[in-house]
């Protein structure tokens, strides 16, 4: 990794270096379409930066991006930071009220947006916005949203760039590692959204470490991107990392279904993907479990350790084929992976890697390294290169305490919120994550849940809801589950897979379907409680008729349901 206080810790340096090394190689584009080369990508960024500067965007200004993934998103981002401005990526799934709050607080003079997002700014007070550019070339709404298509904006920018090159030349402000590159608003499980300030060094540190960890991934490899670039997980590992390695990024577009994802993978044959657990859990339930459950022979084999491994490896080979047959690394992070799914991936010899981190750590604190035989299944791997982890106030018996992290990737703080910053950042640079866990004898980090999620029962025993939820989610007919405290007792809320249940009860009356669901719930409660301590047992399991409200990485927003605030 480059030395600290070095210009090489800037995102601009990474971009310029990738141009020098890989100019004529494919760099970035939509899946199944012809990508831009590194040279074309760099030229577009420079032209856009020239225009931004000419239109008055200066170092330290905020420029917002509210859009789905695309090569135009990446072009806009790098143009913003090239002029020393600060990019404000907004998660596409955020509701209108949150979008208004961010844009009003940031006072951004420019906004890059897409058609799918544009209705969110119909009612926005646009006095601060001087320019709105549509990255997908969609039209604005006259009198409501005046917008310029990106291709038109870029074409005019290219002319400006040519004029400068023929005259005084192109130059931009100096950008150093501690300059802010992004302000990201957290979309967490505990409510209040905070503006996380991330410097160039924060964002490049993890990417450099990850590049050094995966020598098997060579220049030209394909990274398939399925998660929002406005989240640090995908930004750092799915965007900056492949640029360092000289790889090609292919964007899948909007969240693909398993069938569409399979078609894209067949065409692109990716070597690397980064996903959230929900994607793998869906594939496991829809593609893996049915193969076993519908075959008496496979079910019988899975009762024995050797037989289970044999079956898992056969299915694992098919899973590699599902992802195009060329997969060398799948990073899984953003939330906890169900232990049953990870057990299958491990026994299938699937090339997965679990990571752990936060927006505030840009984002990785632990994960890997790939190929380390001492990584324990169920853990989040070792501290990332350059990162230190310690457990604060550990329980004398279990060793579980709050996880703290320290390193060049730790944020500068929350914007305009010194009190909140002081709550999580110590004077010597340690980040208090709010998560509970322990380090094992091999140095693996084991996550036990959020400290705010721990339920203290009447007998004083601490109950971690996440492991119970994993047991509920392991059932093939459950889409998602949540465990909450209700008057000193534990309730499980489940959202069933109604499509699967409809198949299982085809031809039955509504009354019979209801009886079938009730019997599934009763059996589940009995079976799950047999696996739990007395204090952790569920008093009841309640059916929820619609999905839970979730964050960008598909974690349930618990604060909406605590104490029965929002009933199932």
Task: Please describe what this structure looks like.
Helix 7 packs across helix 8. Strands 2-1-11-10-12-13-14-15 form an 8-stranded mixed beta sheet. A 5-stranded parallel beta sheet has the order 4-3-5-6-7, with helices on both faces. Strands 16-17-19-20 form a 4-stranded antiparallel beta sheet. The protein is 36% helix and 21% strand. The mean pLDDT is 91. The termini are far apart. The chain has 4 domains: 194 residues, ANL, N-terminal domain (Rossmann fold, 3-Layer(aba) Sandwich), CATH 3.40.50; 162 residues, Rossmann fold (3-Layer(aba) Sandwich); 67 residues, Luciferase, Domain 3 (Luciferase, domain 3, Roll), CATH 2.30.38; 108 residues, 2-Layer Sandwich (GMP Synthetase, Chain A, domain 3), CATH 3.30.300. By secondary structure, the chain is an alpha/beta fold.
Brief digest:
The protein has 568 residues and is of the alpha/beta class. Helix content is 36%, strand content 21%.
Question: Which characteristics define this entry?
Answer:
single chain; alpha/beta; Rossmann fold; Luciferase, domain 3; five-stranded parallel sheet
Decide which structural class fits the backbone.
Answer: alpha/beta
For the record, the CATH architecture of the largest domain stands as: 3-Layer(aba) Sandwich
User: Order of strands side by side in the largest beta sheet?
Assistant: 2-1-11-10-12-13-14-15
- Find the CATH topology of the largest domain: Rossmann fold
Helix content: 25-40%
